[in-house]
Design a protein that fits this description.
The protein has helices spanning 6-22, 35-57, 111-124, 140-145, 155-166, 180-199; strands spanning 64-71, 78-88, 94-104, 133-136, 150-153. Helices cover 44% and strands 18% of the residues. The chain has a five-stranded mixed sheet. It is extended. The protein folds into three domains: 13-58; 61-153; 159-199, no CATH class.
């Protein structure tokens, strides 16, 4: 339900605060900022956050850089997300994760284009380090994009096809030892995930192997 969402509650809280502060309002233009003001404010906040991120990354010697391509389910536009992981020695050696960029990527998904966008983002934020390690899926275009760097295949992407293949029941093979009950359980779990996605909104999406 929309009224139970955190976003709606935040808006309601803000409106109640405005009412309590200004009382009865007959002219909204005196309270609500215009679109230009909001746009300028957002630009200021973005630049401020970017400078803070650049300053934070400046002292890091090495990054684990991950990237993935995905398609927006409503606009059908292709996007690229780039993140950086590193160990912060000033914070009890904890692993930190920073989202460096999420941007539209409607160009062809070639190795050159992926590498170009990655290099542009890393240079802009001062995150280009000779010892960076790049982690992606096993698609040929991403592997080629970082062939001149240290590259690792994503463990989750590697594990998914292994599990998918391992949980398939080879009915005609006498060497198959996978119990039928296991495949039944796997199929039932997939059905539950499908129904959950269709009938309810979850804060954390459920995952299933193909």
């Amino acid at each position: 339900m929309i009224v139970e969402g955190d976003g709606f509650k935040d808006i309601a809280t803000k409106l109640i605060f405005i009412g309590a502060t200004y009382g009865k309002i007959t002219n909204l233009s005196k309270v609500l900022p215009c679109a230009t003001t909001v746009s300028h404010h957002l630009s200021t906040e973005v630049n401020k956050a970017k400078l803070e991120l650049i300053d934070k990354l400046a002292s890091v010697r090495q990054f684990g850089v991950t990237t993935d391509l995905w398609t927006h389910q409503h606009t059908n536009e292709s996007h690229i997300t780039i993140t950086a992981q590193y160990i912060d020695i000033t914070d009890r050696w904890r692993v930190q994760t920073q989202v460096l960029a999420i941007q539209v990527f409607n160009e062809r998904h070639t190795a050159d284009n992926i590498r170009s966008v990655m290099n542009s983002v890393l240079h802009e934020l001062g995150a280009v380090k000779p010892s960076n390690v790049f982690v992606t899926d096993n698609a040929s275009n991403t592997k080629v994009a970082f062939r001149n760097h240290t590259w690792l295949g994503c463990v989750c992407h590697n594990l998914n096809p292994v599990l998918s293949h391992g949980l398939q029941e080879a009915k005609e093979s006498k060497l198959c030892t996978l119990p039928h009950k296991v495949t039944e359980l796997s199929d039932s779990c997939k059905e539950v995930v499908t129904l959950a996605k269709l009938n309810c909104q979850l804060e954390t999406s459920l995952k299933q192997t193909e």
